[in-house]
Amino acid sequence: MPAHVEIELCGERLWLLADRALYWPARKALLVADVHIGKAASYRALHQPVPRGTTAATLERLDSLLGAYPCEQMIVLGDFIHARSGRAPATLALLTAWRERHAGVHFRLIRGNHDRHAGDPPAQLGIEVLDEPWVMDPFALQHEPQVHPSRPVLAGHVHPVCVLRGRARQRLRLPCFVIDEQVSLLPAFGEFTGGWEVKPDAPARLYLAGDGQVWPLAP
């Protein structure tokens, strides 16, 4: 089973996974944010030289996670498909085959800003699409990291990363989870995504993900 760190947030046990996802054992739910399927295809449509195979690699990672954990549902906290130009036939064929492999898993998508531009996923994928916030006690699940009036938030959108700096000018940039009593952030799951640097700021807790491990960043 992939490495994880178990935390408690608002009375719930949550597992922060090394592969930039969150598993909620009590709900048998896998949560990811900012998958950005078809982003590379969107850039190639603009004649930008970007690598191929990122969608297949992203879906293979999801295959591994859904196979490693007992999942009855999967929830994407926004930005599943990157853009309309990314809905190429080859990309949709990969998505259809992936969805068929996990037909027994209930799939929910909380609409993000890219989803609103790309349009909802094709109906044949069997994805329930919801507007934010969507309440799943005790949390409000959102794309935008905005405070909810009555519930702690799990969100994405900003692609949080942390930069570690060494004495000899070493620099290591790693995706991270930001855990806070009001708004917690998941790192971007997609293969071809950037990141927004966050810094330790009490009372938030930062957990770095890299090299098959998750570990807390000391304040």
Q: What does it look like?
A:
This protein has 219 residues and is α/β, with parallel strands linked by helices. It contains 4 helices and 16 strands. It has a single domain, classed as 4-Layer Sandwich (Purple Acid Phosphatase, chain A, domain 2). The strands form 3 sheets. A 7-stranded mixed β-sheet has the order 1-2-3-4-5-6-7, with no helix packed on it. Helix 2 packs parallel to helix 3. It starts with a strand and ends with a strand. About 4% of the residues have low confidence.
Question: What's a quick, concise take on this entry?
Answer:
InterPro entries: Calcineurin-like_PHP, Metallo-depent_PP-like, PdeM-like, Pesterase_MJ0037-like. The protein is α/β, with parallel strands linked by helices and 219 residues long. It has helices at 39-45, 54-68, 89-101, 113-118; strands spanning 4-9, 12-17, 21-24, 29-32, 73-76, 106-110, 127-130, 134-136, 139-141, 153-155, 160-165, 171-179, 183-185, 196-197, 205-210, 213-216.
